[in-house]
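Query structure, 435 tokens:
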């Protein structure tokens, strides 16, 4: 497998290079040189396969010989070791639950696969791989639990003090082993700025082997295609083969993976993106002008993104043709008040407790159905377990949450955390002193 940069299609790098250096120097994004078309017989019979078998088939088609089949199988067995069930709420409306992994969010798919691929490519005797990651909550937990115990790697997570939920903080700070948590007395943007500066610091890079666990890493995108195929397989075995997926979107990596699956031959009728008031993409789909804005804080804070980093990938998939994108993707935007109403409606109508991101997808799926009636299964993606967002959820719904196994044990564990100020020199000194 070779990859090009969206800014320079003549540039070609190996999968391994793209994994360790998330971003090309030209600031584009890596894309597979060739998007494989899956064997139609595989799609036709897809309901016969398990999630892991599907994941292997898809990954092998994309990655080719960059990882030998036997090794890829081991990576997938280890990384994709939890389910993503489709559950019908009524005859027409289903939800694809992506929160049954260790951090209770869909980011587990990307983070677990990427961590094992990085571990695989890190040869014995290589210098320790230092992963730096800034998080507003969900990314950090998925990366921490994804890399936990992966040999040859160490993770340093920066998170903003007081701005992550209890479960999120526990997932960041109770790991030990090869995971370190830094609580920064500042905002998420401050955390991100510290990490960015570290990546550009030559002195630091000469003594540490730094890499990012950024959401734009190609090894996070590929495994996110798996569950679209798996959802389709589940629907097909129930007799439905027309599907519209609705995806709560921030950086547009999740829906980008869905569109990649579509380009590989997954029969999807349409995609719908639901966003919070950070509506750069919905505005683009309306008027064809891509005008990023500074992000605004919302209840669905994992989608507070004013300039979605994966959008250029989607444009690349559709050869920069806005009308071609519009033919496959619709989008709708919701404010916090509407998001709350969406959560309430899900609870009252279906006794389903959803996180705010998931509620936005529900609202968008409903709106699309209203405008496009027809005989199809509407599936919205549930990206996180509601227990991660207690402040956004009504007391009544919160009472009804069934905590995932392990969530209460987390609270008992010792917290291991180092507090730092927003001070680059102090951060750098910490990294150098704790090599
Ligand atoms: C990260 C995240 C999203 C947004 O996904 P993108 O791939 O950035 O569009 C949505 N919901 C939850 C719960 C998340 O953690």
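Result returned for the query:
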């Amino acid at each position: 497998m070779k990859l090009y940069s969206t800014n320079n299609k003549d540039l070609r790098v190996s999968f391994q290079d793209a994994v360790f250096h998330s971003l090309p120097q030209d600031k584009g994004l890596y894309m597979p040189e060739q998007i494989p078309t899956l064997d139609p017989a595989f799609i036709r019979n897809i309901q016969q396969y398990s999630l892991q078998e599907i994941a292997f088939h898809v990954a092998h088609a994309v990655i080719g010989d960059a990882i030998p089949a036997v090794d890829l199988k081991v990576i997938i067995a280890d990384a994709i070791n939890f389910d993503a069930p489709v559950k019908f709420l009524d005859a027409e409306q289903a939800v694809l639950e992506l929160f049954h992994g260790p951090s209770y969010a869909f980011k587990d798919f990307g983070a677990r696969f990427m961590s094992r691929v990085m571990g695989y490519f890190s040869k014995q005797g290589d210098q320790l791989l230092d992963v730096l990651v800034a998080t507003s909550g969900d990314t950090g937990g998925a990366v921490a639990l994804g890399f936990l115990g992966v040999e040859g790697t160490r993770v340093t997570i920066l998170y903003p003090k007081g701005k992550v939920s209890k479960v999120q903080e526990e997932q960041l700070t109770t790991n030990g082993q090869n995971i370190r948590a830094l609580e920064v007395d500042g905002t998420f943007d401050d955390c991100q700025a510290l990490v960015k500066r570290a990546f550009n610091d030559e002195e630091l890079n000469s003594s540490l082997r730094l890499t990012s666990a950024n959401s734009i890493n190609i090894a996070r995108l590929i495994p996110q295609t798996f569950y679209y195929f798996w959802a389709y397989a589940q629907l097909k075995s129930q007799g439905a083969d027309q599907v519209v997926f609705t995806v709560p979107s921030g950086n547009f990596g999740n829906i980008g993976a869905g569109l990649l699956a579509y380009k590989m031959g997954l029969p999807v009728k349409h995609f719908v993106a639901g966003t919070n008031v950070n509506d750069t993409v919905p505005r683009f789909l309306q008027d064809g002008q891509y005008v990023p804005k500074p992000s605004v804080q919302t209840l669905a804070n994992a989608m507070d993104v004013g300039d979605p980093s994966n959008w250029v990938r989607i444009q690349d998939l559709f050869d920069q043709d806005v009308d071609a994108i519009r033919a496959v993707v619709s989008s709708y935007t919701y404010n916090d008040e509407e998001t709350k109403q969406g959560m309430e409606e899900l609870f009252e109508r279906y006794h389903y407790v959803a996180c705010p991101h998931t509620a936005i997808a529900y609202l968008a799926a409903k709106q699309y159905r209203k405008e496009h009636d027809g005989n199809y299964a509407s599936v919205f993606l549930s990206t996180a377990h509601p227990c991660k967002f207690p402040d956004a959820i009504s007391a009544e719904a919160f009472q009804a949450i069934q905590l995932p196994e392990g969530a209460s044990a987390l609270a008992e564990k010792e917290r291991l955390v180092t507090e730092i100020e927003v001070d680059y020199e102090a951060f750098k000194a910490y990294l150098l002193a704790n090599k």
